[in-house]
Amino acid sequence: MEIQLGRGKMARRAYGIDEIALVPGKRTLDPSLADTQWKIGNIERNIPIIASAMDGVVDVNMAVRLSQLGALGVINLEGIQTRYADPEPILDRIASVGKDEFVSLMQELYAEPIKPELIEKRIQEIKQQGGIAAVSATPAGASKYGEFVAKAGADLFFIQATVVSTAHLSPESITPLDLAEFCRSMPIPVALGNCVTYEVTLDLMKAGAAAVLVGIGPGAACTSRGVLGVGVPQATAIADCTAARDDYYRETGQYVPIIADGGLITGGDICKCIACGADGVMIGSPFARAAEAPGRGYHWGMATPSPVLPRGTRIRVGTTGTLEQILTGPAGLDDGTHNLLGALKTSMGTLGAKNIKEMQQVEVVIAPSLLTEGKVYQKAQQLGMGK
Length: 387
What we know:
By secondary structure, the protein is an alpha/beta fold. The protein contains 16 helices and 16 strands.
């Protein structure tokens, strides 16, 4: 339904994850029977959760451990890991600087050139330990370093930017990356994002995307929505983009998974994204809180180091437990940020969804009071949902 903003502008109402709720159906099932398996490219995983390609979230060790636990971690090919042979002292500096010095420090540290030999080294380090080597770069980075990624034997390539489209206009001196040609030429599956609309999702799938990432600006450390004024609330964005996926599948027989990326903190957030139609999710700040995370209890966005217009900030997320606790439990916290897989399985059991496809079909209602109704004591005492 369109709403009139004024005489010259109409707008469509869009909804965020916090504004919706999931409705139980006629059937329930034991959570142990809930099948959370999914597939991206030619890789099958038991847990539909991906750790974001952010320097405070994924390094070699995190990527390996996530693989062992049944999930997936993506390493940033344009970050600290590929600029410095030993990233540990650099990460120490990022964690120790005050908030007023943060932006200038990041601009200094990320001015160090990316070293192609480190790209190959990080991929090989993950593979040698039996992990899935998933990597991420901007379109410009993909153009420069795609051959090194292929040579090193990576398993998945994510091309990510604030907004990615197949119709990008560049200055005459710059040749934009041809996404369709890149997808055809790479020997591994290529995921493309980010986007928030039906039309762009369809274009990216036609270009050969093995998966499409949905989400502009909802991330915990992202300020794109404030700096640029750009974005669509996640519930609406996911529903629009999954409609494109379903139409594309009906037309071609090819199923391209949708990954909800950004703004997801709790197990409930993940459940609602899948109920809106997503096949999997990408999260950053919940994993940045793991004891094994490279950020030392801090989390910052991928666009933060920009030399001209930093979009993103460094937030203190603390360390709340091990990666295993956060992903598969047992939970040590009461706020929904531990045992994310357990939350998904329990929600699926409550809703009677045997698998991800059935979870995508559950009833959703608009419920702006979902997180506040009856929670006076939790809020007053800063417990559970009141934290």
